[in-house]
């Protein structure tokens, strides 16, 4: 133990430290006891990945990472399926001792790779020689560290903790037997449990059930180690709600960009209810749904006369942007003495207003809410239809998926997806565990975001083309194709129009000459724009409002890091980010990390045990449950 500036420091070392979730938590741990303040001093964090080590130091603000491959030669050959390079060698106990700065750490933490023990990997593959070699790091790393401390320090760490996935109790039983035998050999009291919820330990916004081994040397720490007091868990909305808007990389950093997903994937997310996953797609009534365009907030906005105006945008005009370009002008003097029939629509079941000499919507009530008009018909019944395999197919048309039922529910494809594939999480509930392969096709990596204001559906006559042989839709005061049915399929054109009239130009060819009367009635003033309807496999970012009024979108990598309780800002002031890796690799690093806040709370009980041992306390009463007591061993079969 070191004593500096009235602070008692307990040394700690981390094996397989990754990007530093455990290290960052230990550096935040502190306990006041007996008039003194106890904290950790990190000796090192060992990992074979130089990019992970580099980011470890960026996150912790300390240069304590050590790049070291703890594979033995046979493990290297089995994992990489080739001989190691000429400059590679097995690490020895002396190498570990040097990494420990030639000190026996008070606390040793190990988080060996769990890929081969996780339920995300098929059982057959996990039993292969390649993954068995990777799994053996749980034993070989701990064995090498204990050997270094015993041989060169003539002592052993007072407390050892090992973290892994709960499925290690079934897929790694032989490994656990070797670890327990090794710890007992050195005289440790051992607790083995697979039901630790790090979400409750750290007060996180996600459930994260983990397997933990806690070993205590009774010679150095004769008193027990207490279990951390559980904290109330937060919802996923509590964590990511205060963060910058997703996609705002200026404030949230490069990891806060939204993934570019295929159009069909965005559609699937929008159709899955909050809290559901891909299985809910089987319950969707596709024929009753349609996609409509909803302008951003502010479109068609009318500014108040006595308040400041909104920002003036480059595309100023009603409906052209989200900038306010209309105003509620009180200078017309339309008060009690003004006309009451201006732009008035009369109900059909009441007497009409006085017919004036200048009937029109701006002078008299010349509009009526006509109930005789039929309801707007739906789209072609076969649009986007999925045909059942056991029914007759609809008529085969010459058009695409948007016009005919040319998709089939093929029962011959037996797709086995993870239960959370395409899962959309509810905003007001605790998030599910962050996995290393956290993509929407494999985990519940999307959220039902309620921060997009719910807006009522648009008027049903928007962009509607009326039939010449049917009643017209109601004439409204806003005569615009975007607000009322102001188009008609006119059959009266019985003479050859001018060349170019109603002309549709090709997207990939030069445009025709722009004339002074350039509109669709006088020239080729239309274009076949391929952009509005994306192809199913086209990638991009689209905002589709789901039926619950929220935006079902993927979680950004930055938001996943916040759910893992990483700091919102790095010590150098930048938003949290990882350097030297792709976004997919960053998600893997984040998913493999120990949550910082959970590591801090577990570090606190380790420090408390060390402080009581320094004070000569062998026993103390506490309401908290005992974590490590003589003879304790529990292995509940909790799988996640």
UniProtKB/TrEMBL annotation:
Keyword Transferase: yes
Gene Ontology MF terms in the entry: methyltransferase activity
Superkingdom of origin organism: Bacteria
An annotated GO BP: methylation
InterPro entries membership: C5_MeTfrase (IPR001525), SAM-dependent_MTases_sf (IPR029063)
Positions of region (Disordered): 311-331
Protein keywords: Methyltransferase, Restriction system, Transferase
Pfam families referenced in this protein's UniProt entry, alphabetically: DNA_methylase (PF00145)
Signal peptide span: none
Protein name from the UniProt record: DNA cytosine methyltransferase
Organism whose genome encodes this protein: Cohnella cellulosilytica
């Amino acid at each position: 133990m070191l004593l500096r500036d009235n602070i008692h420091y307990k040394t700690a070392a981390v094996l397989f430290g990754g990007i530093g979730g455990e290290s960052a938590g230990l550096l935040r741990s502190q306990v006041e006891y007996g008039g003194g303040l106890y904290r950790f001093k990190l000796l090192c964090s060992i990992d074979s990945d130089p990019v992970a080590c580099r980011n470890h130091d960026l996150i912790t603000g300390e240069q304590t990472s050590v790049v070291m491959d703890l594979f033995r030669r046979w493990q290297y050959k089995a994992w990489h399926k080739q001989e190691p390079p000429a400059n590679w060698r097995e690490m020895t106990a002396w190498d570990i001792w040097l990494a420990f700065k030639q000190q026996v750490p008070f606390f040793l933490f190990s988080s060996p790779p769990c890929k081969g023990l996780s339920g995300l990997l098929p059982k057959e593959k996990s039993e292969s020689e390649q993954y068995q070699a990777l799994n053996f790091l749980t034993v070989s790393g701990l064995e090498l560290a204990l050997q270094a401390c015993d041989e060169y320090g003539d002592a052993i760490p007072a407390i050892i903790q090992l973290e892994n996935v709960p499925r290690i109790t079934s897929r790694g039983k032989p490994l656990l037997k070797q670890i327990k035998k090794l710890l007992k050999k050195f005289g440790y009291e051992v607790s083995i449990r697979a039901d630790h919820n790090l979400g409750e330990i750290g007060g996180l916004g996600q459930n994260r059930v983990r397997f933990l081994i806690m070993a205590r040397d009774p010679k150095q720490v004769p008193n027990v180690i207490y279990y951390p007091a559980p904290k109330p868990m937060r919802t996923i909305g509590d964590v990511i709600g205060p963060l910058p808007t997703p996609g705002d990389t200026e404030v949230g950093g490069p990891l806060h960009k939204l993934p570019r997903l295929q159009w069909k994937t965005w559609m699937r997310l929008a159709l899955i209810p909050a809290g559901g996953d891909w299985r809910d797609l089987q319950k969707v009534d596709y024929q009753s749904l349609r996609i409509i365009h909803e302008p951003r907030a502010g479109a068609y906005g009318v500014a108040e006369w006595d308040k400041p105006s909104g920002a003036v945008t480059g595309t100023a005009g009603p409906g052209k942007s989200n900038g306010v370009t209309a105003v509620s002008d009180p200078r017309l003097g339309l008060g009690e003495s003004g006309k009451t029939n201006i732009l008035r629509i009369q109900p059909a079941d009441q007497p009409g207003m006085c017919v004036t000499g200048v009937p029109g919507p701006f002078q008299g009530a010349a509009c009526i809410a006509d109930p005789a008009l039929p309801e707007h018909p739906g789209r072609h019944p076969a649009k986007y239809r999925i045909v059942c395999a056991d029914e007759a197919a609809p008529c085969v048309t010459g058009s695409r998926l948007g016009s005919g039922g040319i998709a089939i529910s093929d029962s011959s494809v037996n797709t086995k997806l993870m239960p959370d594939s395409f899962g959309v999480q509810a905003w007001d509930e605790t998030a599910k565990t962050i996995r290393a392969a956290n993509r929407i096709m494999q985990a519940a990596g999307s959220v039902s975001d309620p921060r997009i204001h719910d807006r009522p559906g648009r008027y049903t006559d928007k962009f509607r083309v009326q039939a010449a042989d049917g009643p017209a839709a109601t004439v409204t005061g806003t005569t615009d194709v975007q607000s009322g049915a102001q188009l008609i399929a006119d059959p009266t054109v019985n003479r050859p129009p001018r060349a170019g009239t109603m002309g549709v130009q090709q997207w990939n060819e030069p445009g025709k000459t722009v004339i002074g009367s350039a509109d669709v009635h006088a020239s080729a003033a239309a274009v076949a724009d391929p952009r509005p309807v994306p192809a199913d496999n086209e990638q991009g970012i689209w905002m589709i409002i789901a039926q619950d009024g929220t935006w079902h979108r993927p979680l950004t990598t930055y938001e996943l890091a916040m759910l893992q309780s990483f700091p919102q800002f790095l010590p150098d002031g930048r938003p949290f980010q990882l350097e030297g890796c792709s976004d997919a690799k960053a998600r893997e690093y984040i998913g493999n990390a120990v949550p910082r806040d959970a590591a801090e709370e577990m570090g606190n009980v380790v420090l408390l045990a060390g402080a009581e041992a320094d004070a000569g306390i062998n026993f103390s009463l506490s309401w908290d449950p005992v974590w490590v007591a003589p003879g304790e061993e529990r292995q509940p079969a909790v799988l996640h």
